[in-house]
Amino acid sequence: MSIEIPSDMRAVFDAILEAEIKLSYGSCEAYNDFLLNGDNVSAVSASSRCMKGFQAVSEATVAVACNNNGERCRETELISFDATEKMAYFVFRTGAEIRDGKTREYTRFGWIVTLILQNCDGEWKIVHRQNTRISS
Questions:
Q1: What CA–CA distances, in Å, run from 104 to 21, 63, 68, 100, 130?
Q2: Dihedral (C-alpha) 13, 81, 75, 27: value to the nearest 10 degrees?
Q3: C-alpha to C-alpha distances, 101 to 3, 13, 46, 92, nearest whole angstrom
Q4: Which residues are paired to 116 by β-bridges?
Q5: How many of the other CB atoms lie within 10 Å of CB of 112?
Q6: What does the H/E/C string look like for the chain?
Q7: pLDDT tens, position by position, for the chain (136 residues)?
């Protein structure tokens, strides 16, 4: 089943995915530009680490960018989406083989990701990201 997304929201979703790919190649700026700047942004990592506030969440993306040096075979499948004028959410399954900078070996990962966005004067910002590892 294909989920219909208005073209403007598809562009936002695709841009966030592109920014996440850039994290795998050492660049966190594009992703951090999507974060709501303030205390109300939060994230939960696949290891259940909870971060609250722009500083903590953006520092976590810097750590991810510093520890990875590439990926291949990325796949993304949208599970659910909805939006109003002010809020939107995306739930998707994603996976990639990510090269960890320490081991230099490829490891297969699978996640379910929930993104909640807020429309801030015409710009969509991430207010929450939940990352859950899929059990194999």
A1: 18, 16, 9, 5, 26
A2: 30
A3: 35, 27, 18, 26
A4: 89, 128
A5: 16
A6: CCCCCCHHHHHHHHHHHHHHHHHHCCCCHHHHCCECCCCCCEEECCCCCEEECHHHHHHHHHHHHHHEEEEEEEEEEEEEEEECCCEEEEEEEEEEEEEECCCCCEEEEEEEEEEEEEEECCEEEEEEEEEEECCC
A7: 578 899 999 999 999 999 988 888 888 999 999 999 999 999 998 788 999 999 999 999 988 877 777 777 788 889 999 999 999 999 998 887 766 655 544 455 578 999 999 999 999 999 999 998 886 5
User: Which tokens belong to 92?
Assistant: 């998707």
Q: Residues for the chain: how many in total?
A: 136
